[in-house]
Structure formats: C-alpha cells, structure tokens
Specification:
- This protein is of the alpha+beta class.
- 67% of the residues lie in helices and 12% in strands.
- The protein contains 13 helices and nine strands.
- It has a five-stranded mixed beta sheet. It has a two-stranded antiparallel sheet with strand order 1-2. Strands 3-4 form a two-stranded antiparallel ribbon.
- Helix 2 crosses helix 5 and helix 12 packs antiparallel against helix 13.
- The longest helix has 59 residues.
- It is elongated and about 125 Å long.
- The two termini are 22 Å apart.
C-alpha cells in the first residue's frame, strides 16, 4: 500500500508529460529549485550529523554525552519532519509521519525509549545521511543542465550586451558576433529546455520515491493507519446514526403530544359534554357530537401524516418515483421531479433519499420564498445522487440539531454525504450522495 497521497495540484508522478504542460506546471519549477538546493541541505545535514554524533559519542565517557545524543536524535527527527514538508512543497507528494505513538504521561524516559526503538527514527537518520551524496549528484546534474540551457537560450541577449560570445561544448566551438548569429544556439537551447524539464521530472520522481520509502510509513503502518481511519469513521457514523434516531424519536413524541393526543383529548371532552346534555339539550349534544366527529377526522389525518413521516407505505409498495411525486404534489410551489434509476436501490437508500427530499421541500416552503423547485434522483455508478434545487433567497446554513444536520446524520449511517450550497440570493442546492452498498 502506497504512502503517497495526491494534493490538490497533483504530484510530479501524476502530472502530464507533454512539454508545454510540464513547462506550465509549477511543480516543474519547484522541483528544479529543490534539486538545485539539494546539495546545500545535504551538506548541512552531513556536517551536523558527523560532528554532532562524533562529539556526543566521544563525550559519553562523561555524563554530558548522553543528553547530547538525545538532542541529536530529536534534531534529526525534526530535520526529517522538515524534509517531509519540503518534499510536499516541491513535488506535491504528501508523506505522512510514520512514528509510533509515544507513551502518555509526564515521564520523558518512556518516550525516549519509544523513539530509540522506533524504526522510523533510524530510517530518518539513513535518509539524512544519504542526502549529501544524492544531493551532490542532483546538484551537479541540475546546475550543468540548466546553466547550459539558459546560456544557449539567452545567447542573443548575452551577445547584444557583450558584443560577442564563444560557446565551447567539448570539442565543438561556436562564435557568435551578433544576436542573429546567436539565434541557432537559442534553437538548440529551446530543445535542451525540453530535455531539462524531462530530466528534472525524472529526478524529482526518483527523489520522491526514495524519500517516501525512507521517510514514510511502511506497508503495515499504512494499512494500520487506514484501518484506524475507517474505524473512526464507522464509530462517528454509528454515533451520528444513533443521534438521528433519537432526534426522530423526539420528533414523533412531540408530534403525538402536540397534535393527535390533544385532538383526541378534545374529542373525549366533547363526547363527555354531549352525553351530559343528551337528555336536557339534544341540539347542543348534536353540535358537540359533530364537533367531536370533526376532531376525530382531524386526529386520524394527523396520525396518517405522522405514519407517512415514519415510513410512507407508497415508498414500500411503489418506490421512489411515486413517493417523491406525492411529496411534490403537496408542496406549496411547483416542483419538477426526475427519477432515473435502472433498478430500485436498497430500502435504506430509498428511505434516506425520501426524507432528504421531504425535509428539503419543507424548508423551501418555510424559508426559501421560492417560486419553483426541481428534484433529481439518478444513479451514478454505485451511488444514488439526490439533488434538490430551488430559486429562493438562499442563505441556508447547517446548524447542529437542525433539519439539514439531521439529513447529514441520516446519510452518514450508510457512509453517504450531504452537501448544501446556498449562497445569499440563491439558488440553494442540496445534494446527497448515497452508496448502494456499504
């Protein structure tokens, strides 16, 4: 498993190999600068390591040598961390720190012991020791290549300033007495420029590979890191799923208490009053019974709406298209629904997609001041994409414990994601990517 990861601008290994693209790439020039300065970094590391380790080792006959060795170890680990950052800046290659976790606590000795027995500490030392000979090769190749290229490419300008110039390359000699005579050398310099960027790219890739091998985690460490990241993601998804279920439970409880329960209580009171008036005031009792009947119908409708909010029967029986069309028909603004699915996705995906659309349409009705909305559901590879767009005022913000946050929590239970793009003035776009397998 590779320890390389691609940054936003790519890496030297992933970039295009066309000359024009390489010349336009910032990585070409950052790589050239890094390789040109490589010798000086390598020399500094080599001198510091040789002098520091030699002096510290010699002084171990007295106690001061041991803390000096500890400081040297900390110094070369810090230098290796710097190199990882420089490699990322120059080549676009991100090398993660491979160090084992240090023991917790204030006692420094267990931490020092862990550093000493960490293989990454000694791989850092090997890398820094190799920086001098490898940096020397990179420096010489870069200086010769770019100096020759630059000289030939700008020879007309040099001749115009100096009045003439002679170019000697091995046994070949060429005299240019004026800028026009220097133009053939500029053409050769342009060809060398193309070769220079290819050589620079090749040296950069080689340096990045050996830096990744020595400064990065090994295959087992990279796999363990990935497994830990997946475990953390699953733990977070589970927690968000539990929160979403708890939020839904509280919503159902609140809707029952504030809606159907209050109406049924009013119905019971009306029936009780009607029974008391049945003998003395039949007309009043009739009115109370009619009122109780109307309240019963309203309670039944609220219970139906609540059941539809838990899991609509039409979604189970007929799928997303009819269910979403039903939601659009009840919306206060015109809603265009497009569902393009080759086959029905899993029930969990259908349910989450339905509630994302339902919550989004409810938000449009309450806050958006929109005149129209569109709902699109499509399958892209192994993902179901749900997109809701309205032409309202925008400015929607995901707040903790809010409806949009609840949608994200629902999607996270199956490793999905919800993205909200709602600039002030609109339009508002809510997009959910839901996997069909997890």
């Amino acid at each position: 498993m590779s320890a390389l990861s691609i940054t936003r601008r790519g890496t030297v290994a992933s970039g295009a190999w066309k000359p024009a693209r390489m010349l336009a790439s910032s990585l070409t020039w950052t790589s050239a600068v890094y390789l040109g300065l490589s010798f000086f970094f390598g020399l500094a590391y080599f001198v510091a390591l040789v002098v520091g380790i030699a002096v510290s080792g010699a002084l171990t006959i007295i106690w001061i040598g041991f803390p000096m060795l500890v400081l040297m170890m900390l110094a070369w680990r810090a230098a290796a961390m710097l190199e990882r950052r420089l490699v990322r800046l120059a080549f676009g290659v991100r090398i993660r720190d491979p160090y084992r976790p240090l023991p917790k606590g204030a006692n420094p000795f267990p931490k020092l012991k862990a550093m000493v027995f960490d293989p990454a500490t000694w791989k850092d030392l090997i890398y820094l020791a190799l920086r001098f000979p490898i940096g020397l090769v990179e420096f010489l190749a870069s200086v010769v290549m770019w100096a020759l290229t630059g000289t030939l490419l700008f020879l007309p300008l040099i001749v115009a300033v100096s009045g003439g110039a002679e170019v000697n390359v091995g046994v070949v000699s060429y005299w240019a007495g004026n800028p026009v005579q220097a133009l053939p050398m500029s053409v050769i310099g342009a060809g060398l420029l193309v070769g220079a960027v290819y050589v620079t790219r090749t040296m950069a890739i080689a340096h990045a590979l050996y830096a990744t091998y020595l400064l990065g985690p090994n295959a087992a460490q990279a796999e363990n890191r990935e497994l830990r990241a997946k475990t953390e993601h699953l733990r977070a998804s589970r927690a968000r799923g539990v929160d979403a279920v708890e939020f839904e439970r509280r919503r159902i409880e609140r809707d029952l208490h504030d809606g159907a329960q209050q109406r049924l209580l009013a119905v019971a009171m009306d029936i009780g009053r009607a029974r008391a008036k049945l003998d003395t005031d039949p007309e009043g009792a009739r009115d109370l019974i009619e009122q109780a009947h109307a309240g019963t119908r309203e309670a039944i409708q609220e219970l139906r709406d609540l059941a539809r909010g838990i899991y609509p029967a039409i979604l189970t029986d007929r799928g997303l298209d009819p269910a979403l069309s039903g939601l659009a028909g009840r919306a206060p603004v015109p809603v265009e629904v497009t569902v393009d699915l080759a086959e029905r996705p899993p029930a969990a995906v259908e349910s989450i997609a339905y509630f994302i659309v339902a919550e989004s349409l409810a938000n449009i009705a309450k806050y958006a001041e929109a005149t129209r909305a569109t709902v699109r559901v499509a399958q892209e590879d192994s993902w179901v994409v749900v997109e809701i767009i309205d032409d309202g005022v925008g400015g929607a913000v995901v707040r903790p414990d809010g409806g949009l946050a609840g949608l994200a929590d629902r999607a996270a239970t199956i490793d999905g994601m919800v993205i909200v793009d709602s600039p002030p003035g609109g339009p508002t776009i809510v997009r959910a990517d839901l996997p069909c397998s997890w």
